[in-house]
Amino acid sequence: MKKITIDPFTRLEGHGRIDIFLDDEGNVANAYLRIPEFRGFEKFCEGRPVEELPRITTRICGVCPSAHHMASAKAVDAVFHVEPPSAAKKVRELYYSAHMCHSHIAHFYVLAAPDFVLGPTADPAERNLLGLIAKVGLETGMEVIKHRAYAQDIQAVIGGKATHSVCGLPGGVSKAITEDERRDFEEKSKSMVEFSKLSLKIFDDVVLKNKDYVDLVLSDMYTLKSYYMGLVDANNKVNFYEGDVRVVDSEGKEFAKFKPADYLDYIAEHVEPWTYLKFPFLKKIGWKGLVEGKDSGVYRVAPLARLNAADGMATPLAQAEYERMYQTLGGKPVHHTLAMHWARLIELQYAAERLLELCQDPEITDPNVRTIPTATPDDGIGIIEAPRGTLIHHYQTDEHGMVKKVNLIVATGNNNAAMCMSIKKVAQALIQKGKEATEGILNMIEMAYRAYDPCIACATHSLPGQLPLEVVIYNAKGKEVKRLSQYLS
Amino acid sequence: MAKLKLAIYWSASCGGCDVAILDTNEKILQVAEIADIVFWPIALDFKRHHVEAMPDKDIDICLFNGAVRTSEQEEIAKLLRAKSKTMVAFGSCAHLGGIPGLSNFSNRAQAFERAYVESQSCDNPDKVFPQTMTNVAEGELELPEWWDTVKALNQVVDVEYYIPGCPPTVPIISQLVDALAAGNLPPVGTVFGSDKALCEECPRTKEEKTIDKIYRPHEIIPDPEKCLLEQGIICIGPATRGGCEARCIKANMPCRGCFGPPPGVTDQGAKMVSAIASILGLENEKDLSAEYVESLMNQVKDPAGTFYRFGLPTAMINRKRI
Predict the structure, then answer these.
(1) CATH number, span B4-99+150-181
(2) Which residues of A touch B11 (CB under 8 A)?
(3) According to the 3-state scheme, what is the secondary structure of chain B?
(4) Fold held by A83-223+336-372
(5) pLDDT tens digits, residue range B194-214?
(6) In chain A, N or C: fewer CB atoms in 10 Å?
(7) Which residue in the set A19, A62, A275 is minimally distant from B16, CB to CB?
């Protein structure tokens, strides 16, 4: 089985495209997701002074640049064998919690919610943020915009710019937080905690109280059994900024738990000729192709995977929501791809609570935020949880800290195989002999992939809640029989 | 006044320019008042045949972000040029080539080798690479061809205006929107932003002193009130157009030149070499040994990748010969 897509550290150029091939019977033989670009960061980072990489690798993605900035900052710490002061780590985590809030708000409200609030088969002209605001009310809409802006403001103050921040460097952050800034952040964080509660309530009212949606979430076509991966703290609670990488199997049993520096013992990547995107897999199980279950090395990342891979959340409100989700969906792990949206809102609650905790930490305004590195630089790995899942930056340098080699495994890449399978599963369930492939079916297929919030589908890349996506259906003779687009007017 | 027709397109870019447009918040409502957005791939269905069907010069203004490095991107740039009265290179990549322009230090074969074979996590003993055309069991699948060389927009088509920055700032985007609303565009060729070098708007104090030691940013904790260059940290401010509000410098980090060279400077790197010679006190000294000069200048790590961080494709020497 084969498909084509692209490295997520490359960008979507124009259209993403899903090619669906039908067999002689008119059923789905195979489905391919393709995004036609490659960006080449691994090569052109070579030769640069390694301390510059936190400012270069942000350009992998203008939508989640802060995730790359932080993974890179941690990797350069490791290259120089330097431990940032405690306050610097807290400033980074505060900044990063704000980024998670921004990203999760944008994804849920702009991209995902229109499907649920307006219905998966609603008119595409209404299935967007403006349609959503019309349905939930302008007041709620303004809250969404306000809180996304709060999260952007916090990042801009610490990072210089919200997009392509510059604060991270080996041994810490470039400037400390002032007391005035802290007070402002604290107010915004309090508001964010309340806004997160509101978001979970909207999810409750709109999705969980609607049997049709719950059935959709629980349906076979949106269910996939795989391994799950995420960072956990010392108590096995979800952590976005640091910890060990934990992997659980499809029954929820711990399969592996490892230090970021050991990632190469656990993860390898498969290459196919027809795609720019590599396929990461669990090395100890091996690449068995695009297949589900315990015997396949396919694993998933992103919010639901993080919750599955952990034993809980480190803050009280998020923990209560975590317990409620697993009670409602029948225990751990949850394999229902669309539950990713619920998990994302639980993470928003955690990010907001953690943001507030850090704003109230007496150490957060400590001016000591830099440790000057003294060791000889060589090799370093930084892993964080990007909004879209586990993100790995690995740098090797010469003794002067000039980059010799860069390896990047980005969040969406980890989900490559799973996204392929999820798309094919929905396509097979919905496109069958004698059934008309409609606009609504296209969106149902797209929902399978939107749940992963693939970088190419970042919320802000889809202002009205839609991807620039096209589906082409071929018959058994390879002739195009149907072409569907989100935007045909 | 009839509403303007506005197109927004992204090429080889990260998406940050599109986020910058969204971050203008209320300004975007003003845009909606004065213009109909006829194309925006992140927001609207952009179909090539729709554009092809338009009369020439039907679009009033096209904001084009991202560099150009595939055959497909070049074709679309040419198509949009033909259909647009005014073409704006939006953001550092379209303006100067941007960070992806660092690709011009290598070529496609090297980039593919590194990503698909040499990568530490790759399990690819047969050296499989992505292909422009692949036969799968069910049919053929195509990918656009990736070039050896990254180009800025004006190396592919004529460009009227430039919006600098990675990403562009809200005030500069607003300048353009206000000029459009007033029907009062500046002379063709204008780069928005300041017409002075960044140093002239930098809030830090300068003592006009010389130094003999260069520090990398992680090697020193700089005084937040003083010129970074005079503290020995390479800052591209002297060779960079102002207008960015000194965002990075206010975060206590040096400029990396995303606004491109200031007016009157054709090559940002050449200007930076002379700025560094000046701060190292090499300008007016005739009796310094070549070895001494070299030892001072050698303290600057990766000068090409630093001075041309955002502008290698538009530099006088714009790629490495391989």
Answers:
(1) 3.40.50.700
(2) 13
(3) CCCEEEEEEECECCCHHHHHHHCCCHHHHHHHHHEEEEECCCCCCCCHHHHHCCCCCCEEEEEEECEEEEHHHHHHHHHHHHHEEEEEEECHHHHHCCHHHHHHHCCHHHHHHHHHHHCCCEECCCCCCCCCEEEECCEEEECCCEEEEEECHHHCCCCCEEECCCCCCHHHHHHHHHHHHCCCCCCCCCECCCCCEHHHHCCCECCCCCCCCCECHHHCCCCCCECCHHHCECCCHHHCECCCCCHHHHCCCCCCCCCCCCCCCCCHHHHHHHHHHHHCCCCCCCCCCHHHHHHHHCCCCCHHHHHCCCCHHHCCCCCCCC
(4) Cytochrome-c3 Hydrogenase; chain B (1.10.645)
(5) 999 999 999 999 998 899 899
(6) C
(7) A62
